[in-house]
Design a protein that fits this description.
It is a single chain. This protein is α+β, with helices and mostly antiparallel strands and about 575 residues long. Among the domains are: about 120 residues, PAS domain (Beta-Lactamase, 2-Layer Sandwich), CATH 3.30.450; about 90 residues; about 150 residues, Heat Shock Protein 90 (2-Layer Sandwich), CATH 3.30.565.10. Strands 3-1-7-6-5 form a five-stranded antiparallel beta sheet. α7 runs parallel beside α8 and α9 runs antiparallel to α10.
Length: about 575
């Protein structure tokens, strides 16, 4: 039906499809932008890590210089001091002169392979064979740097730098040099390392050598659940971790003396160093945000320029389909020229439809009036013929002639009644067959043949809409059957004649008409076998497209016709 608005799923609407197409179209750009942003972020991260590592190395330049100088001194002593090893007094004088000349060290001595120190700048010998540090020196036999909180010679905190020396490609002993720690880590940090929290150094075993803060405070800032020895084996890098005090910080480690001493810088999370280790989620989500923004902007633009005008035009069409009222023209000058032309075409089409419908209604009204006039004139002519026949009946003196004329007059009256009911019907295209049959039964003189008999008439008529093509033969069939009933009625045991008319629907597309009357057993009327009434009833049943059934059962004669309700089928036009 025109104007019926069916369900319109939103997922198949124009807006949803545009969003889908734009999303698919912008996906390659979004992927490329994401990949480029990721690569740029990785490159920025790598450069930032190099930067913070360089800052760490620069901040620990003093510690590195001191340790390298101590290593250089130990190597120099390792090359010359063994020459005086067998003369302890000369060896002691040599080491003391060396310390006075350099002024950087507080102690120097040679550790024999048995753990004894007999040649040193001190005035006495030492035995370190039972210490863990000596066991580690003998196990690794390489350079080492260790912290002694209280040295036996100076009773102060020092760094012991040990360097092996060789004779005949074998380790002959170790030269140890003491460096005081009171000067390490005391230098004030400058830009860009001014915002770091702590800078400390540690050896390959993970022992802290120096720190700017107090040692106990510095240990609280180290990464929790992470041994510094693990960092000593890793290359220079930066990372984010939670300190032992529960605060998340940024850490950067860099080798000062590869394989021997490393520096660890500790930064607050909000510092400039955070960019080197934190994933820049904002930068990675920026391509997706730009993709979403592009889709939204494109959709809003299309919605403003196209969709809302199409929606308005659709509302106008549905309103016109429901009310048949011509909508006003849109005064929105933002509407595109193509949509404005579409709206103009729709309004012109709607105006043409209204004019065509008005013409069709006028033509239909004229045809209805003419058709009613035809039925009225046919009814008048049939009544005129009935009146002429009535005059002829009164003038006739032969009973056979009068009987024939009366039968014919009854059929003509039935036809006149049908046409009268047709022109009085509001809708000539649809006839209420139940009402039509009721009017026909009431107007027929059923008991004309039995003026002294009492007739009981029972009707059960459903309101069924029929086209005139079926309503007319149904009425004629009923009238002819009732005419025969009036001639052959028989009084029953109760002293009355019974007539029953039943018109009902058997299913959605079928109906049945039944006319029955009381009669004598095995006494079928002669006219029902081969007479005119029988032929007319059979002809009307054929026009209905039904099957005629008739017979006597239990002193009741029944005519039954079941037929299919059909739609109007116009006559074919011969062109």
């Amino acid at each position: 039906m025109i104007g019926a608005a069916g369900p319109r799923p939103v997922t198949f609407g124009l807006a949803a499809r545009i969003i889908g197409f734009l999303s698919v179209a912008l996906v390659p750009l979004g992927v490329v932008a994401y990949l480029q942003t990721r690569d740029l972020g990785e490159e920025t991260r790598a450069r930032s890590q190099l930067s913070i590592i360089a800052v760490t190395e620069a901040a620990a330049a003093g510690e590195r210089e001191t340790i390298l100088r101590a290593l250089g001194g130990a190597q120099a002593l390792g090359a010359t001091a063994p020459l005086f090893k067998n003369t302890p007094e000369a060896c002691q004088r040599y080491f003391r002169e060396y310390l006075r000349a350099t002024r950087d060290f507080t102690y120097a001595g040679i550790v024999d392979l048995d753990g004894r120190i007999t040649c040193s700048s001190a005035e006495r010998s030492f035995d370190v064979s039972g210490t863990q540090r000596f066991a580690a020196m003998m196990r690794h036999q390489r350079s080492s740097v260790n912290l002694y909180e209280s040295a036996s010679t100076s009773n102060s905190s020092v760094l012991i730098v040990s360097e092996p020396f060789f004779r005949n490609d074998k380790v002959a002993g170790f030269v140890s040099v003491s460096v005081p720690t009171y000067g390490l880590g005391q230098k004030e940090l400058e830009e860009p390392a001014s915002d770091l929290t702590e800078l400390l150094t540690y050896n390959a075993d993970g022992d802290v050598l120096s720190s700017h803060l107090d040692r106990e405070e510095a240990l609280k800032l180290l990464p929790a659940r992470l041994d510094l020895a693990e960092l000593a084996d890793a290359p220079a890098h930066s990372f984010q971790a939670r300190s032992a005090d529960g605060v998340v910080r940024i850490f950067a480690t860099a080798p000062l003396v590869p394989g021997l001493v490393h520096a660890l810088s500790i930064w607050p999370k909000q510092s400039r160093a955070a960019i080197s280790v934190e994933n820049d989620s904002l930068a990675r989500t920026l391509p997706f945000a730009m993709w979403a923004a592009s889709v939204i902007v494109a959709f809003l633009a299309i919605n403003r320029l196209v969709i809302r005008h199409i929606r308005t035009l659709g509302q106008q069409m549905r309103a016109f389909a429901r009310t048949r009222r011509l909508p006003d023209r849109t005064t929105d000058y933002a509407m595109a020229m193509e949509l404005r032309d579409m709206e103009s075409d729709f309004l012109n089409m709607a105006n043409a439809i209204l004019q065509d419908e008005a013409q069709l209604e006028n033509a239909l009204r004229e045809k209805t009036i003419l058709l009613k006039e035809v039925h009225h004139r046919v009814k008048n002519n049939l009544q005129l013929i009935s009146s002429i026949m009535n005059m002829q009946i009164r003038q006739s003196h032969m009973p056979e002639t009068r009987e024939v004329l009366l039968k014919l007059q009854e059929r003509i009256r039935s036809l006149a009644t049908i046409h009268r009911n047709l022109y009085q019907t509001e809708d000539l295209g649809h006839v209420n067959a139940g009402q039509l049959l009721g009017e026909l039964i009431r107007q027929m003189a059923i008991v004309s043949e039995h003026p002294r008999s009492r007739v009981k008439l029972e009707t059960n008529l459903d309101d069924i809409e029929l086209y005139p093509d079926q309503a007319v033969p149904l009425s004629l069939l009923t009238a002819e059957a009732l005419t025969n009933v009036g001639k052959y009625l028989v009084t029953g045991p109760d002293g009355a004649a019974h007539v029953r008319v039943n018109f009902r629907r058997t299913d959605e597309r079928r109906a049945v008409i039944e006319i029955s009357n009381s009669c004598r057993e095995n006494a079928a009327p002669s006219d029902e076998v081969s007479g005119l009434g029988h032929r007319l009833i059979r002809a009307f049943a054929t026009q209905l497209g039904g099957e005629l059934e008739q017979g006597i059962e239990n002193d009741v004669f029944t005519i039954r016709v079941e037929f299919t309700l059909t739609d109007f089928i116009p006559d074919a036009i011969d062109y």
